[in-house]
Amino acid sequence: MTLSNSAPAPAAGPASGPATEVVLEAVGLTKHFPVRRKLRDLFTREHAAVHAVDDVNLVLRRGHVTALVGESGSGKSTVARLLAQLYPRTGGDILLHGDAVTVKGGRRFRAYARRVQMIFQDPFASLNPVHTVRYHLTRALKIHGNAGRTADDLERALADLLGRVSLTPPERYLEKFPHELSGGQRQRVAIARALGANPEALLADEPVSMLDVSIRLGVLNLLRDLKERLNLAILYITHDIASARYFADETMVMYAGRMVEGGESETVTQNPAHPYTRLLIESAPDPDRISGLTADTGDRGNGEPPSLINPPAGCRFNPRCPNVMPRCTVDLPPRIEIGDRPGHWAACWLYDPATVAAQQPGSAAAATEEAAR
Ligand SMILES: Nc1ncnc2c1ncn2[C@@H]1O[C@H](COP(=O)(O)OP(=O)(O)OP(=O)(O)O)[C@@H](O)[C@H]1O
Ligand SMILES: [Mg+2]
Asked: Ligand 2 being an ion, which residues bring their Cβ within 5 A of it?
């Protein structure tokens, strides 16, 4: 087990090698939203802020899906919007192929969006109800310079886009309005529109959570197929850790604006290290769930996420943590390698070598604890 500071996971992680080139990277990404208070407070108090995202490090690799999992309000969408450069950030860097990029609209933003596209949760809201599928896709192709030169080129590009998302034959869909499509078909059109830019990275913010359960798998399989065929780097945001296990190569867990655990999806979901990840898995309706994790949680673990205006000191999960120790309420835990699989880490003092040593049978601390029982 090794302690590290909060630097991003090294490239030699669960998905290393030349085939897994890093496309997009967040380093120390931070976003605080100012809170507007009553007028008189402006003169008397410090400016309060929602600490939506703090010191987030994340790597998206070519041909890989990275899941970002966490409960509502943990900052997942804010991370995606920051990566898409839709918000200015409070701190940190976004690296595209290793180069720090900051864009604020205009031509540079379009050039960035050509390479990094976003898919939103609600395809009904993201498609304009007064325009047809043809309009949405043509616009995307033209904005990003992929419409070709002739009308035939455009038709071919449109058919190709619809084919990629399995909406065939194209003439059945091109003249349809969003309300004439099913939820799954709408999300496929939204995905096709994103592909119109021919991007390298897709940021998918809960792309299936608004869809009927019966069609979720189809859309996830489509994204997986696109990842493989187009060698896309995909960020898959979800609150459903079971789907991350199924769909993502790597899983990162976020709690109250901070990353708490990361590693190969299989390891994070089958061998969760952070008490918060365990809680998420316990509450997920996964039939393959590992048993025995529910022991000793008592009443803790339930409860609410903390206020992000005054987040708890130390580990933000400490007020809910079944394993809380005095140190957790004071010191922020760094990323600590768990050591079971390469690249598996948790930001939790339970894995601090000193804590682990104290828990070994025969240690003085273990003996004291035993006597106290
Ligand atoms: N534009 C904004 N202004 C102020 N606060 C914001 C803004 N956007 C998000 N927040 C706050 O930041 C925190 C994180 O929000 P975010 O939408 O990123 O969470 P999320 O993990 O995507 O949640 P959900 O699962 O519900 O989509 C929340 O406390 C939210 O209220
Ligand atoms: Mg969200």
From this structure: 77
121 alpha carbon – ligand 2 mean position (Å)? 8
Give phi and psi for 338, each to the nearest 5: -80, -35
CATH of the domain at 93: 3.40.50.300
Instruction: Kindly report, residue by residue over 109-165, the tens digit of the pLDDT.
Output: 999 999 999 999 888 888 999 999 999 999 999 999 999 999 999 999 999 999 999
Q: Counting atoms of ligand 1 from 1, which one is nearest the CA of 31?
A: 12
The reply to whether ligand 1 has any atom less than 6 angstroms from the CB of 52 is yes
pTM: 0.87
6 falls within a domain = no
Angle at 19 between CA 17 and CA 21, to 5 degrees: 80
Question: Does ligand 1 lie within 6 Å of residue 238's CB atom?
Answer: no
User: Would the CB of 112 count as within 6 Å of ligand 1?
Assistant: no
- Report CA(73)–ligand 2 centroid distance (Å): 7
pLDDT digits (tens, 9 = 90+) for 156-207: 999 999 999 999 999 999 999 999 999 999 999 999 999 999 999 999 999 9
Domain count, the chain: 1
Q: Is residue 318 part of a domain?
A: yes
CB of 75 closer than 6 angstroms to any ligand 1 atom: yes
d(CA 345, CA 348): 9
Nearest Cα residue to atom 4 of ligand 1: 33
Q: What DSSP string describes 67-91?
A: EEE--TTSSHHHHHHHHTT-S--SE
